[in-house]
Every structure is written in C-alpha cells, then in structure tokens.
Design a protein that fits this description.
Layout lengths: L1 E6 L5 H18 L2 H4 L3 E6 L3 H5 L16
Parallel strand pairs: 1-2
C-alpha cells in the first residue's frame, strides 16, 4: 500500500504517521492483504473544507476513485 499525505499540516510527522497507520489498519480490516498491497492512497488535508466546498454544516472529507483498472 502506497500512502501519500499532502496539504494542510502535512509537515507534522506525528499526524502523517497516524494517518498512515489508520489507513493501513482499516484497509486490512475491510480487504484481503493481497488486495491492500495494490492500493495507492493519496490523502489531501484541507483547512475549513466545508467553507471551500460551499457547504453549510460539517464535512469531514470525501473519497474519489482516480483510476479504474
């Protein structure tokens, strides 16, 4: 599993490590190990995501599929 973290506060090594560990943990809970090994995960952190997306209320993130191989 290849994990890339960028964006707001991505220079924090502790935060990056927590995100990588959590991503791998939950991926292994949901899928077989051989499937997890083929995932490229890009995590982009954004400050005030709801404001940037023009949404009133709370938004914690969203997921996009970049490649459908």
């Amino acid at each position: 599993m290849l994990i890339t973290v960028s964006g707001y506060r991505s220079h924090s090594k502790r935060l990056v490590k927590l995100l990588e560990d959590a991503s791998e943990f939950f991926a292994l809970k949901m899928m077989r190990k051989d499937l997890v090994e083929n995932i490229d995960l890009d995590i982009v952190l954004a400050k005030d995501l709801a404001k940037k997306e023009g949404i009133t209320g709370s938004i914690y993130g969203y997921c996009n599929i970049l490649d459908d191989r």
